[in-house]
Amino acid sequence: MIKVRRLGHATFETPDLDKQIDYYTQVVGLHLLAREKDRAFLTARTGQLAVELVRADRPRCATLSFEVAAEEDFADMARRLTADGVKSELRSDSIPGTPQLLSFQDPKGTTIELFTEWKFLGRDQGATGIGPLKIGHVAFFVQDPKPIAEFYGRVLGFKVSDWIGDFFVFMRCNADHHAVNFIKAEHVAMHHVAFELRDFAHLQNACDLFGEKNIPIIWGPVRLGPGHNVSTFHRNPDDQIVEVYAELDQMKDEELGYFDPRPWHKDQPQRPKVWERHGVAFVWGPPPTPDFLRSRG
Ligand SMILES: [Fe+2]
Q1: Confidence category of residue 297, pLDDT binned at 50, 70, 90
Q2: Please, are residues 103 and 111 in contact by the beta-carbon 8 Å criterion?
Q3: What distance in angstroms lies between residue 161's CA and the mean position of ligand 1's atoms?
Q4: Torsion angles phi and psi, residue 21, rounded to 5
Q5: Confidence class of residue 281 from pLDDT cuts 50, 70 and 90?
Q6: pTM of the full predicted structure?
Q7: How many Cβ atoms are within 10 Å of 102's Cβ, its own excluded?
Q8: How far is the CA of 243 from the centre of ligand 1 (A)?
Q9: How far is CA 202 from its chain centroid?
Q10: Where exactly are the structural domains of the chain?
């Protein structure tokens, strides 16, 4: 098994590269680090790479990268992947600041890239837009969340933070309640990507920006159940759902086995569990709108 420590960046394919660059810089507030003819790299204002955009026929989340411990050896990781039945490939210089990465496909066809080395990249202090701290998590529709959750646990060291019924699983690779989610559906597709904000005041500023730019909020502000993050959701120009959130549950010490106590928790302590399928998906706030719930593919 490999133990991934952190979500690095996501690669989104898009048919309209310019429009997505405008969206990620002017609405999300990422910094455009580098632009080539058919791709672009964007960083958070911390200088960490957050998003790669690649021109393609249709919108898709193609790749997730994850940081592993600095002392990990690529050949040894490749051997462990082979032992788990996964064929991997060592690649060089495919993302800025990261000299080498180990690339393979997860069972739903997303490319996973593991890296040990990275650099702080450009920052844009005068940027407009929301300006998140980081990319926080990516959620996917899959036909069966159980085997993919098992793969992420067995091969990449993820732990299950919560289930809703048997159709929605939240998985963590560090203190954050979740870095990936899998939701049962008829097809495989990204469900949403989420960016972490500083606090609820930052979320309020984001809502004001959505108002100013006439971007409909399709759910929230809401305090969710699993993870207890305060969140709002909107759609980007590729019709993908994008979440901005703050106050996500933290499990600072795995040995204790509970999330840091918060006054809005209903369980004392709040441990990983199976949430009931109906009625408890959020603590307060409005229900999701039909525009949030409509399926995509
Ligand atoms: Fe989310």
Answers
A1: very low
A2: yes
A3: 13
A4: -65, -45
A5: confident
A6: 0.97
A7: 21
A8: 6
A9: 19
A10: 4-115, 134-290
